[in-house]
Amino acid sequence: MLEIKNLHVKLEEEDKQILKGVDLTVKAGEVHAIMGPNGSGKSTLSYVLAGREGYEVTEGSATLEGEELLEMEPEERAASGLFLAFQYPVEIPGVGNMTFLRTAVNAQRKARGEEEMSAGDFLKVVREKAKKLKIDAEMLKRPVNVGFSGGEKKRNEILQMAMLEPKMCILDETDSGLDVDAMKLVSDGVNALRDEGRAFLVITHYQRLLDHIKPDVVHIMAAGRIIKTGGPELALEVEHNGYADILAEVQ
Ligand code: ADP
Ligand code: MG
Ligand code: MG
Q1: 135 — phi, psi (to 5°)?
Q2: Which of 46, 53, 75, 155 could, after both became Cys, cross-link 172 (CB 3.0–4.6 A)?
């Protein structure tokens, strides 16, 4: 599904190398977690995959089902099935949540050469998915994320993910200060969308989140590289011993 090879990234503005050779392969149906000390480049990795400005790829590749992501515009990445949920969802005053979702869904369908969803069909689907996620109809009418509580924003993010039916979902939860309820929302959302045709990359430093999500593979990132890969037990090791032992091991 997602194959990252020898990815090197520097800041555009400064001569600062942030990613120094990231290798990562995520197969369809799998859930991978990335953990790692603050400043190791976890968020940068997700920003680069999303196509955010300000970063320069100096070496390496990242493909989604064999297609080079790094050469695509951000919208093309979304259309090809990439979804990124970020720590701080943007507020869009004046744009109703429902309108936003419908525009996003139809833009994606258009980019895939599919027909637009009719207003009636869309309404049916969005209501059904919202209900499953315990999102009330009122929230669908309000402007996107404006005045939403932290929990509502999380819920909305999961709803966006459910509506777009992406193939590769990347969630960066690193510094969001997820409380227990929000953690449950995210993990329930991910678990509900787990599917053999879909993969997840969950970036977190909360081992507790991984108690609920149960990743297939756990990676530890430090200083711009993935330094260790293992099963869920690796997250527990970090929980008990911190990163020091792992860092010492690879030096
Ligand atoms: P993590 O998510 O693992 O905490 P980040 O990807 O946020 O790490 O950051 C990696 C490193 O790159 C840090 O040293 C951070 O300060 C630096 N960095 C990332 N983006 C920028 C930026 N736009 N300007 C300056 N430094 C940045
Ligand atoms: Mg950080
Ligand atoms: Mg981060």
Answers
A1: -100, 125
A2: 46
